[in-house]
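Second opinion, please. Pick holes in both lines of this record:
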Amino acid sequence: MRPPTTHEVIMSRLKREGDCIVYTGSTTADGYGQFMTLGVQWRAHRYFYTYFNGDIPKGLLVRHTCDNPPCVLPSHLLLGTDADNNRDMM
């Protein structure tokens, strides 16, 4: 029997909450899912954005349309600037 891959372990830490799919593993102080793999610290929403959409261009961040920090549902994640994110918070 082979050990689970990192991706399989991460997928096992997901659960549906309302319209969101949330990461139930370790979180940051502000509620974002986080994990480490191959010596790299990831925020879960950034991992899932990258997994489904490719690299995050320099200068952009991954925003949540649902305002739910542990959510990793790809349709709830979009790229934007710090200014976009600040407008979203208003």
Notes: The chain has a mean pLDDT of 93. The longest strand covers residues 14-17. The chain has three helices and six strands.
